[in-house]
């Protein structure tokens, strides 16, 4: 395929375009680099400006202290524990959201039952009620059920997803009716059709949604802040906030920086590992 | 293998009845084609036999069993869909095997049947490909293979050839016929294409507006259409309709019953040269000559009539537009109808 001709497609134009791109990348990457550099210096070095631009020699010590030792300001909980908490919660939220939304979309698209459209609109309307709006009643329910400081309390209120339900509904509606009929003639009941045909066809959509929802779960702030009191149940984002004191000298900046680096690694990993599926899920039209 | 019997089958959507009492007896091993214009209810009827649409009233039997209220999977039928409806994520092999797996067949039996069907349809080299990697004709074969492996009591075809190009359609038409002869399975086939209907069918069912117009062999339907609708629908170009009164004095009309007020004449039965023996002679003007390869179509205006008529003739007659013609027709080629009832007189 020929290169599309654009304004300034000449040599100088290309150079300018690249220059702007590189500048943009540097501007975006610089803070992350800065965080990484800071995570490899001792607290003293960080507190005595200017901060060096190159990684220092304290990296291994900092990372092993944070991951293994436990951090005093957050009750001696290790970053390893925080990573586990967050990974578990984010994965459970993503998987739970997908499970609930794919089954409810299946019901709405492929079954005829009384009040079907009422249920559809009920789900649709919850789009207008994000966590922040229903936070007080939800909190009360969690307290009554004794779910404060539990994984269930962190996960359950975030699992229902109107958006994912609508996405699956749209996808299911593009599946030709004949496919369903062929499966019926072939002796596949509702469960078999779901398992053998619908799930494999939705694989790329599920992968794309998983990436989006995992990051959504990973970056949750408000709800985990409310529903956890115990330091050992914190997610990494909450713990990060708790590590930072108003008094600069009280804050273990080197460990904060280590925690920052470790907090952004898993989402990046998920995106990189699932990128191929993710893109396929967003652009796929083959059916 | 089995007979399929439809007895006064009706279908309503709410208050609207779309199938008005259809009765058809399909013999064991017979190939019956449902043909009619779009919206005549032929696909609905087929889907009712398949169990994909409910039967409002009437009795539907496959073999000795009344199957009105059975699920499609319990009716022992296999269906070939217009858009093939292959499972896009499964290999051809798994597409064929899926229905057998669901029925709990043993691995060895599934493999045997898949291999046999694949050999019969010449799709063995593609067994491990996905449907997306196959051409239209190959997908059509896979769809037929999926029906074949089931060894069902009846095959149901829902316009299976309409997504193929003209050349492939003819080839697959011949193959479907050969295959059905070979396995001898009772078949019900829906099409709007009358050539497909005439070439495939042991018997034709012509449907119009949810009513059976005629049931008969292709020869019977073509040679003795029971209604004006059938006369116009079967045969290309369609039959010309001429009022009986206009024919009076143009030749012998003894063969036309007194009740008839309109007469159908096939374009092939109008000759440019007078045949030996008794015949009618119709004066006309040539409006357009359309060469079509080995034959030619003449669009003519019969003197004193409003609607145009068509003549089909072999070769390419040397005639200019506007030429005066004398068209000849033998009395036995006249199809008499009663306009009020639409039926043959």
Automatic annotation (TrEMBL), chain A:
- GO biological process: any one? transmembrane transport
The UniProt transmembrane annotation reads 15-36, 87-111, 118-139, 151-172, 193-215, 252-274
Where does it live in the cell?
A: Cell inner membrane; Cell membrane
- Membrane topology designation: Multi-pass membrane protein
One Gene Ontology CC term in the entry: plasma membrane
Protein role? Part of the ABC transporter complex UgpBAEC involved in sn-glycerol-3-phosphate (G3P) import. Probably responsible for the translocation of the substrate across the membrane.
Protein name, as recorded:
sn-glycerol-3-phosphate transport system permease protein UgpE
Query: Can you name the source organism?
Result: Amaricoccus macauensis
Gene name of the record: ugpE
From TrEMBL, chain B:
Q: Where is the ABC transporter domain?
A: 4-234
In its UniProt entry, what is this protein called? Answer: sn-glycerol 3-phosphate transport system ATP-binding protein
Provide GO CC annotations from the record. Answer: ATP-binding cassette (ABC) transporter complex, substrate-binding subunit-containing
Q: InterPro entries recorded for this chain?
A: AAA+_ATPase, ABC_transporter-like_ATP-bd, ABC_transporter-like_CS, ABC_transpr_MalK-like, ABC_transpr_MalK/UgpC-like, Mo/tungstate-bd_C_term_dom, NA-bd_OB-fold, P-loop_NTPase
Q: Which GO terms describe its molecular function?
A: ABC-type transporter activity; ATP binding; ATP hydrolysis activity
Signal peptide stretch: none
- Organism ancestry: Bacteria, Pseudomonadati, Pseudomonadota, Alphaproteobacteria, Rhodobacterales
Q: Indicate whether Cell membrane appears among the record's keywords.
A: yes
> In which family does this protein belong, per the annotation?
Belongs to the ABC transporter superfamily.
Biological process according to GO: carbohydrate transport; glycerol-3-phosphate transmembrane transport; glycerophosphodiester transmembrane transport
What keywords are assigned to this protein? Answer: ATP-binding, Cell inner membrane, Cell membrane, Membrane, Nucleotide-binding, Sugar transport, Translocase, Transport
